[in-house]
């Protein structure tokens, strides 16, 4: 590999980013210094916070680079990616401008290629690595021997279960070639009618199949179980909630953890408490970030309830300070972009996630703990509120600029005319329907 390959293959010109930053740098410095003075009055060194934030990264899903659509329709945009190579290129733009998303989470069979070591090199040349691999047993593929229409890992049909197990093991094998160390398993298994399947025996079948996948995990690998309350099944789902998830993870073994998708809970559930509970039992394995208003898991992270995102990160900082049996969650964005350019949405989401993280760092931990111990409810609440009210954008702008990203990501992206260029070069997306 040529030494200058990384620089030469990045999709956005570094000169454009430098020019963009130069125009905004004076005001960022002014705001950063003012915030630094404010924080120093409470004993906080802004540079320490900045350096910690600079180390935080979140993965993006390969499928997030396309317009997701809903169950009803999909409205493609010109220049949308149609294969893993184009998706990687778009993910490189997100990382180049945000400097916070250096890993891509692939999905199989959607991202299948013939040569995975070449794909790994291609990603590396774009400044990217691979995160958790995602299996797919929620839809049928052309030429597939057994249908998942009535379930996959929990199917009543032994041959269908075996096929689903085999697919998950294949995902692990592909992941090993890509440098991944986690397998995320979400199944759409469930029912639409009371009585359709036995609620106990369907879980037995799931656990038996999942144990076969678990047995195939290489030494350092983890298996992350993602629960979801409903959809595609609307009466019962086999792994519907964090209770089912942690029970399954505990019965499968130490290398099996739970993954929390923020949009996969019942409405108004206290997700931050779920996070604390999973951590308490050493089972917090990963996150899918998104937001929701009703029962969806599609909206951009922090777009509806940024306070909840902050409270989740407050628990994550607590967990980081008090690790139990290891604390190394896999962070990923998982949302569906129906009305925006996915690159813009994922950059804005990375910013929302890092903002919540930064505010959680700013919580006066000693003051919070002291207020909790003294049962001073108002002071405890104010310890959180005070951090949440802080405008941390100068810290994030400075982090991006110092790492080579863009101070105003959306503006720099639009100036680059990347999507317009791709709309000339890429073939149009078909009017396929439904979720990616
Ligand atoms: Mn998810």
Mean pLDDT, rounded to whole units? 95
Level-1 CATH class name: Alpha Beta
Write out the strand line-up for the largest beta sheet, numbering strands in chain order.
4-5-7-9-10-11
CATH fold topology:
TIM Barrel
Rg over CA atoms, rounded to whole Å, is: 22 Å
Overall tally of domains: 1
Distance between the termini: 34 Å
Which regions contain 5 or more consecutive residues with pLDDT less than 50? Answer: 1-7
Strand content of the residues, in percent? 5-15%
Share of helix, binned: 40-55%
Give a short synopsis of this structure.
With 436 residues, this protein is of the alpha/beta class. It has helices at residues 5-9, 14-40, 46-54, 84-98, 116-125, 158-178, 199-215, 242-252, 271-280, 306-321, 342-361, 365-373, 377-389, 393-403, 409-416, 418-425, and strands at 60-61, 103-105, 129-130, 133-134, 182-185, 190-191, 222-226, 236-237, 256-261, 284-289, 330-333. Helix 6 (158-178) links the parallel strand 4 (133-134) and strand 5 (182-185).
